[in-house]
Design a protein that fits this description.
The chain is mainly alpha-helical. The chain has helices at residues 9-34, 39-67, 96-119, 124-145, 156-183, 185-195, 198-221, 234-251, 261-286, 291-314.
């Protein structure tokens, strides 16, 4: 995997061609999935697909003039700074709000790519084309934000601010909270049931929470540098993710400071329910996940890990 800063102008253009081709195909799938229920929106995506196709043709023409006929294969997953896209276009039926968010995120990422590529390009003709495409992507971004808002009830600035808040704060924090709250259940309750001692369970929970926090923090910080996705500084995201992971694990560890083992065990179980409820609420509030779906997803994971800890601790 190459760093974006190490790409040559030839490779930058090849990557841009690949990005436009991928966006074109995604928009085609969006249009097909929305055509029956949202024909007007599908028509708009057809138009965006055609525009992306035009972008790709212009990039290919410039590439051929500058570097010849062969275009090297460089994909988004070959360059640091991009994040993996969920295959939303394969889901049926498509939800209009989810499509809007994904399309807006795609356009933000592509625009930031063109802006950053243009800033480090020396060739005047390449820089001009990249600047032009960045400006055109801004128009796509606005259109994507307005998909399910026929009457603009919110200012574009508020929409962008909320999206960045979710990308930079909520997503890494939620990932950490889920990992800390769920993954540490097994070691904490296994130690509690195996030793029947509150202090031993507390030490195990503290160690598991701290270790998980450090691990998740580094994993998030090293996942991408945020320069192309707008997800913010990687170490800030890593700090948020790591801290929330530790908090998620320590939450149901603190009750084991209670000397009475049975009381501590029941208190820890109650805290676990509160943690899972908070995670469900966050997923509903910021990820637009239906209440029932969010509760089932979070609850199933928690129950499976909890049962694992109980079985191991009781053996």
């Amino acid at each position: 995997m190459k760093k974006f800063e190490d790409l040559t102008e030839r490779e930058v253009l090849a990557l841009a061609i690949g990005l436009e081709e991928e966006d074109e195909r995604v928009y085609a799938d969006f249009a097909e999935g929305l055509r029956q229920d949202y024909p007007a929106t599908a028509t708009m995506f057809d138009g965006m697909r055609e525009e992306e196709s035009g972008h790709r043709r212009r990039l290919i023409e410039l590439f051929q003039r500058k570097f010849g006929e062969h275009i090297p294969l460089i994909r988004r997953q070959d360059v640091r700074g991009f994040v993996e896209r969920p295959a939303l276009w394969l889901v049926r039926p498509l939800r209009i709000d989810a499509v809007r968010k994904e399309a807006s995120t795609m356009e933000v990422e592509t625009r930031r790519f063109y802006e950053k590529a243009s800033a480090r390009t020396q060739d005047a003709s390449i820089r001009q084309l990249l600047d032009d495409l960045a400006n055109e992507e801004r128009g796509h971004e606005v259109r994507a934000q307005e998909l399910d808002l026929p009457e603009q009830v919110k200012a574009d600035e508020e929409v962008a601010q909320r999206r960045l808040f979710v990308l930079q704060i909520v997503q890494p924090g939620l990932a950490g909270l889920m990992d800390g709250s769920v993954s540490t259940l097994a070691p904490v309750f296994a130690a509690a049931l195996a030793t029947q001692k509150s202090w031993d369970a507390f030490l195990v929970g503290l160690a598991a929470s701290a270790g998980a926090g450090i691990s998740m923090g580094f994993a998030e910080a090293l996942s991408d540098d945020g320069s192309l996705t707008g997800r913010g500084h990687p170490w800030v995201r890593g700090l948020i993710c790591g801290a929330m992971t530790a908090i998620g694990g320590i939450g149901h560890t603190l009750p084991f400071l209670i000397k009475d083992f049975r009381l501590a065990l029941w208190a820890a179980g109650l805290v676990v329910l509160v943690e899972l409820g908070v995670i469900t609420w966050i997923r509903r509030r910021y990820m637009d996940t239906p209440w029932v779906t969010a509760a089932l997803q979070v609850g199933l994971g928690g129950v499976l890990v909890f049962i694992t800890g109980v079985l191991i601790g009781s053996s």
